[in-house]
Amino acid sequence: MPPAGILSDKFDKEIITFFAISGVLIVQLGYLMVGSVTALPVVMLILFIHGGSVGFFQSPNNALVMSTVETKYLGIAGSVNALGRNLGFVLGTTLATTVLFVAMSGQIGHRVSGYVKSQPEVFLHGMHVAFYVALALVIFAWGLSSYRLLTRKKSA
Question: Transmembrane stretches, by residue range (predicted)?
């Protein structure tokens, strides 16, 4: 049984999503510390925590979204929710790749369309710029999650 689903069935979904997005926020800061001498186990730990945080965010967040919809519209809402998530994946990858190569091109002084083997620091620079953009987006999402948590109606 998936642990995120079990927890979201037993505990407050808004709190679980808040802690999960907080984990993603912390991991984004971890990505900014990755450099050319970062040990592989450290990178693996950051990736593991990121995957876990996203996994713990999705299940309760989906349940929260679906709980706001009338029963007769659950199929449509589920489809729109999945479409939004998939668009986010595609647009996020596109944005990250674009930012990466624009930053690399700016660093090296000409258009770059691939990894520059002779200058790995150019890639690290581009990667960090892309992670700063991702951090800004995660801070925005964290703010929305915080707002949702702080302004929710208390159940009787």
Answer: 15-33, 87-109, 129-150
Q: Give the whole-angstrom CA distance, residue 137 versus residue 42.
A: 24
- Nearest Cα neighbor of 65 from 73, 22, 3, 142 is 73
Could you read off the pLDDT of 38-93 as tens digits, one per residue? 999 999 999 999 999 999 998 898 888 899 899 999 999 999 999 999 999 999 99
Extract the tokens encoding 38: 């970062």
* CA gap 16, 31 in Å, rounded: 23
Contacts with 125 (C-beta within 8 Å, 6 or more apart), sequence order: 103, 104, 107
pLDDT of residue 156: 44
Q: How far is the C-alpha of 138 from the C-alpha of 155, rounded, in Å?
A: 28
DSSP state of 104: H
Residue 52 CA to residue 109 CA, distance in Å, equals 38
From CA 97, how far away is CA 129, in angstroms rounded?
A: 11
